[in-house]
Amino acid sequence: MLHLRVIAPEHLREQVLDVLRNEPGVGNLLFYPGVALLPEGDEITADVARECVNDVIRKLKQLDIQHEGAITLHSLETVLSTRAHHAEEAAEGDAADALVWDELIARTREDSTLTMTFLLFMILACLLAAIGVATDSSVTVVGAMVVGPEFGPLAALAVALVQRRARLARQAVAALLIGLPVAMAITGLVTLGAEAGGWITLDDVKNVHQVDFIYRVGPISLVVALLAGAAGMLSLISSKSGALVGVFISVTTVPAAGFAVVAAVLGDWSVAGRSALQLLVNLVGIVIAGVVVLVLHPRKSLIPRSVQPN
């Protein structure tokens, strides 16, 4: 379940209470008149079954609560309440399949914001990928996959396309179009310095064996990107962070960017071009898969309540 807190002006009190009272998936409703100071108003809280949250939020937004007051949500790990249990049973659908759009939008918006931290992670990931190329180390390349923060903007772009949120789409695209080039430019400068110091040569790029999968682009590359993108979006919806780590290790976005820079600096334009194509395939594949998952995600439980186990 999710814990809902509403701060509502006094003139909307009864309307908010009616929304919550009439929703079968709402339990443990509490009302604190006049306790809110900024903004002024009442505090109304309730435990809400995940399956009902979208409808409740939609009705509250129709009252303009998000502008005149506030709406907050947070997950409840353990709820020992017969009333809450009955509310979950009365809700149509299954909590495991419930997609709370406002929760997903907030999460992807945060992960796709172009901040200094985001840029630093992108730069570090690209540098790790370059080192992986120079040393022909698959372990280092995997490290770059895990460190790279690019899945956040890609997931946000998929959400923005499905929900038609232009602002979120612009934010996600800006993070990618600024973050990746900046990381690649810095990696290029470092590669130039390493080449001048004799730390890396063209032969290092031509003779890689452990990490040559980065620039070997083909139909399988798209399949992997689609599967990883689908798994990543499902992990966001279900909050399965362990699955998300697996997604990072499955795709070669930042490693491909790093390899493209290193190869271009050293003069191997064939490898640079194929690495860039690998990068593009992964970016597009992840977004397409994310959109498909969100469009096809079940709105209702696939198993009727009457036959679900207790």
Structure description:
- With 310 residues, the protein is an alpha+beta fold.
- The protein has 2 domains: 2-92, 2-Layer Sandwich (Alpha-Beta Plaits), CATH 3.30.70.120; 103-296.
- Helix content is 64%, strand content 11%.
- The chain has helices at residues 13-21, 50-62, 65-68, 82-90, 101-111, 116-135, 138-147, 151-163, 166-196, 202-206, 219-238, 241-250, 253-266, 269-296; strands at residues 2-8, 26-37, 40-48, 70-75.
- A 4-stranded antiparallel β-sheet has the order 2-3-1-4.
- Helix 5 crosses helix 8, helix 6 packs across helix 9 (166-196) and helix 11 packs across helix 14.
Give the termini distance in whole angstroms.
Answer: 16 Å
What's the total number of strands?
Answer: 4
Question: How does the major sheet shape up?
Answer: 4 strands, antiparallel
| Oligomeric state as shown | single chain
Number of domains: 2
Organism: Mycolicibacterium sphagni
InterPro entries: DUF389
Pfam families: DUF389 (PF04087)
Transmembrane segments: 114-135, 141-162, 174-193, 213-237, 244-267, 279-296
